[in-house]
């Protein structure tokens, strides 16, 4: 039987790796992938709380989180596609139109 | 199941999930990181199977691996990205990002060291009771979620549509 803290440590590790990747990369698509990693870490935490409290609410919140992550991927990829198509820019350091 | 075998499998999944998520953010080619993300999502589905959540495993495989990863790979293929070799991969202050992430991780480890696991665990989860809960108590968030999905679909189509560059009032 695996204790609860192991799953929480796994979730914390994956969330930190996703956070580091979101900060130190400059590709827009890799930043979206790091967002997916962070969503999955939080989903593991929700599912483990659902398991150890013998309650199904955590699994329903994982369902909602997966749907919101799908929406975020669709909108983010559409915005990146519009940026690449109109300006040819793929890196977050080069988007300087609003800098004035 | 024998608890030793269970813990051995858990340690395998911990190590492989960590290595795969590091490989996503460290690989040079962007299509390689997409495929590392695919294997990562399949391992997360296996972790859901550990937690007696079979329905979530199916949803994870169908939605993430079948939907979101296909979307990522199609977007990478459409954009035809070759600019990765012109630029540096990491930003200038990436050391600061690493230090921030490790401080966050250390704080979470200190906080999570005192967690006690309760005795009564979820014995088995059937889709029947999950659907009853979803359609009775969480019915309004479910409907709002359907509206959010519809708006995201329409907005994605409108944003990504190829617009004519110069209109008539020029």
Automatic annotation (TrEMBL), chain B:
InterPro entries per UniProt: NADH_UbQ/plastoQ_OxRdtase_su6, Nuo/plastoQ_OxRdtase_6_NuoJ
Keywords: Cell membrane, Membrane, NAD, Oxidoreductase, Quinone, Transmembrane, Transmembrane helix
A GO term from the CC aspect: respiratory chain complex I
Superkingdom of the organism of origin: Bacteria
Localization, UniProt: Cell membrane
Chain segments annotated as transmembrane: 7-26, 33-51, 57-81, 93-115, 135-160
Membrane topology value: Multi-pass membrane protein
One MF annotation (Gene Ontology) recorded for this entry: NADH dehydrogenase (ubiquinone) activity
Catalysed transformations (reactions): a quinone + NADH + 5 H(+)(in) = a quinol + NAD(+) + 4 H(+)(out)
Main location: membrane
EC numbers on record: 7.1.1.-
Group of enzyme by EC: translocase
Alphabetical list of PANTHER family matching this protein: NADH-UBIQUINONE OXIDOREDUCTASE CHAIN 6 (PTHR33269:SF17)
Function: NDH-1 shuttles electrons from NADH, via FMN and iron-sulfur (Fe-S) centers, to quinones in the respiratory chain. Couples the redox reaction to proton translocation (for every two electrons transferred, four hydrogen ions are translocated across the cytoplasmic membrane), and thus conserves the redox energy in a proton gradient.
Similarity annotation: Belongs to the complex I subunit 6 family.
Name this protein carries in UniProt: NADH-quinone oxidoreductase subunit J
Native source organism of the sequence: Thermodesulfovibrio yellowstonii (strain ATCC 51303 / DSM 11347 / YP87)
């Amino acid at each position: 039987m695996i204790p609860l803290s192991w799953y929480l440590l796994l979730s914390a590790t994956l969330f930190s790796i996703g956070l580091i990747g979101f900060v130190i990369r400059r590709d827009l698509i890799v930043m979206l992938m790091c967002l997916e990693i962070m969503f999955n870490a939080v989903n593991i935490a929700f599912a483990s709380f659902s398991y150890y409290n013998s309650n199904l609410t955590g699994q329903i919140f994982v369902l909602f989180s997966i749907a919101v992550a799908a929406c975020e991927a669709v909108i983010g990829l559409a915005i990146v596609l519009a940026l690449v198509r109109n300006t040819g820019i793929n890196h977050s350091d080069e988007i300087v139109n609003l800098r004035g | 199941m024998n608890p030793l075998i269970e813990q051995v499998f858990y340690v395998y999944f911990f190590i492989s999930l960590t290595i795969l998520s590091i490989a996503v953010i460290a690989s040079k080619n962007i299509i390689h990181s997409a495929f590392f993300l695919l294997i990562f999502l399949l391992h997360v589905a296996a972790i859901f199977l550990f937690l007696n959540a079979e329905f979530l495993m199916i949803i994870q495989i169908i939605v993430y691996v079948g939907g979101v990863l296909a979307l990522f790979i199609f977007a990478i293929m459409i954009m035809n990205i070759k600019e990765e070799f012109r630029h540096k991969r990491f930003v200038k202050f990436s050391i600061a990002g690493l230090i921030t992430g490790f401080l966050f991780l250390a704080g979470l480890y200190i906080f999570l060291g005192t967690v006690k696991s309760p005795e009564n665990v979820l014995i088995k989860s059937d889709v029947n009771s999950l659907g009853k809960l979803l359609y009775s108590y969480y019915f309004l968030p479910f409907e709002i979620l359907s509206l959010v999905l519809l708006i995201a679909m329409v907005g994605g189509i409108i944003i990504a549509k190829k617009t004519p560059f110069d209109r008539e009032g020029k």
